[in-house]
Amino acid sequence: MSTHRLDVEELHRRLDARRQQQRLSWRQLAARLDLSASTLSRLADGKRPDADALVSLLVWLDLDDGLNYVIKPKEQQ
Fold it and tell me: Model pTM?
């Protein structure tokens, strides 16, 4: 069992705030991050994203600081 858990509600709140700040729709955000719109819809419903989607969201929110050694852009894999 994990010692930490993802606060999906807080992640969604931060995404929504940044999204509104940048005047993006949820669909535009999904396209910008190369995610399905349903991934963001599931977040709104309190469901956790898969690991790669979570990484994309954290990078977009600039919350990936200190994780650069395990997070690589897709084209570097």
Answer: 0.85
Q: How far is CA 21 from CA 14, 15, 49, in A?
A: 11, 10, 22
What phi-psi label fits residue 34: left (phi over 0), alpha (psi between -120 and 50 degrees) or beta?
A: left
Q: Compute the 3-state secondary structure of the chain and give helix, strand, coil in percent, each to the nearest 5.
A: 55, 0, 45
For the chain, the first-to-last Cα distance in angstroms comes to: 29
pLDDT digits (tens, 9 = 90+) for 18-69: 999 999 999 999 999 999 999 999 999 999 999 999 999 999 999 877 777 7
Q: How many residues does the chain have?
A: 77
Q: Which two tokens stand for residue 9?
A: 């509600």
CB atoms within 10 A of CB 11: 18
